[in-house]
Amino acid sequence: MKLDVQGLTVTFRIPGGVVRAVSEVSFQVRPGSCLALVGESGCGKSVLAHALLGLLPGNASVSGSAVLDGELDLVSAPPPVMARRVRGRRVGLIPQSPATHLTPVRTARAQLEEALRELGSTCDASSLAERFGLRPGDLDRYPHELSGGMAQRVANAIALAGDPGLLVADEPTSGLDRPLVERTMDELRSLCDEGRAVLLITHDLRAAERIADEFAIMYASRVVEIGSLEAPRHPYARGLVDAQPDRAFVPIPGTPPELTRLPSGCAFEPRCASAVPACSAVPAFDNGVACHVAS
Ligand SMILES: Nc1ncnc2c1ncn2[C@@H]1O[C@H](COP(=O)(O)OP(=O)(O)O)[C@@H](O)[C@H]1O
Ligand SMILES: [Mg+2]
């Protein structure tokens, strides 16, 4: 399944103002490929994911489009269409911290069977579980009896019960230890290799580098660069890479702006060592990067 996002913008009305969480974001995810959306906490990644799933709260306004396979716009589809025909069937969500996402008082089997029933699927829970590396007996456990890795697999089985062609994984490895991070990433990659489009949202660059075909770098609500991390061009993207423990390990000075008070020019300008007077205007996204000084 192919996802084509164009000019996606999300704002929230709050008492006394507006939060601009996603600004004019455009990208594509192709079948069988994984795009990693990375950026510091609070830059708008989860809001973007929720916009794609039709899960934004009532104080949100959305514009732009997010078209699946050239025919279904996830932004303008009515809520009942998103609930009955899209979520779980065409777009699956791999949740953050699956152990807490599962209901504690019901077995994994009860929760997987419920997902299958809601989808009207004739697929049997045990064989689906087996596909995700679980033994049938694992399904009879309660969430607290599952290891982190098993809970992740149950969550994956539930997310994939309706065989969606687009997977959105929002911080799927937060709180997991490194071996489990790597296993979760490898499982996501094999779901992708079966032909699904995967949007991986994370601030763990190392995990993303293991499986992503391409990176979209998000800063203060905007995607500022799309490409590889081998030779980042935007000063923020270079800063993110240099901040990694296995690279220079130098943090980017300063902090991101408040999304209620975004500067009128490039939002990274106050932290940017390469800034020039032209940076007082928002740079257009052109040829993979939004920057007045990028090489
Ligand atoms: N329902 C809401 N009402 C107002 N602001 C919100 C709402 N949901 C998220 N935000 C704001 O949107 C911004 C982006 O948040 P989020 O997408 O969760 O960031 P992250 O990149 O860490 O996932 C934050 O400033 C957050 O406070
Ligand atoms: Mg988030």
TrEMBL record:
It comes from the Bacteria. Coiled coil: none annotated. It catalyses: Ni(2+)(out) + ATP + H2O = Ni(2+)(in) + ADP + phosphate + H(+). The keyword Phosphoprotein does not apply. Keywords: ATP-binding, Cell membrane, Ion transport, Membrane, Nickel, Nickel transport, Nucleotide-binding, Translocase, Transport. Residues 5-245 form the ABC transporter domain. It is a peripheral membrane protein. PROSITE patterns: ABC_TRANSPORTER_2. Its main location: membrane. Gene3D superfamilies: P-loop containing nucleotide triphosphate hydrolases (3.40.50.300). It is found in: Cell membrane. One of its GO terms (biological process) is peptide transport. SMART domains: AAA (SM00382). GO terms for molecular function: ABC-type nickel transporter activity; ATP binding; ATP hydrolysis activity. CDD domains: ABC_NikE_OppD_transporters. InterPro entries: AAA+_ATPase, ABC_Ni/Peptide_Import, ABC_transporter-like_ATP-bd, Oligopep_ABC_C, P-loop_NTPase. GO terms for cellular component: plasma membrane. The complex is composed of two ATP-binding proteins (NikD and NikE), two transmembrane proteins (NikB and NikC) and a solute-binding protein (NikA). PANTHER family: NICKEL ABC TRANSPORTER, ATP-BINDING PROTEIN (PTHR43297:SF13), OLIGOPEPTIDE TRANSPORT ATP-BINDING PROTEIN APPD (PTHR43297). Belongs to the ABC transporter superfamily. This is Nickel import system ATP-binding protein NikD. It comes from Nonomuraea soli.
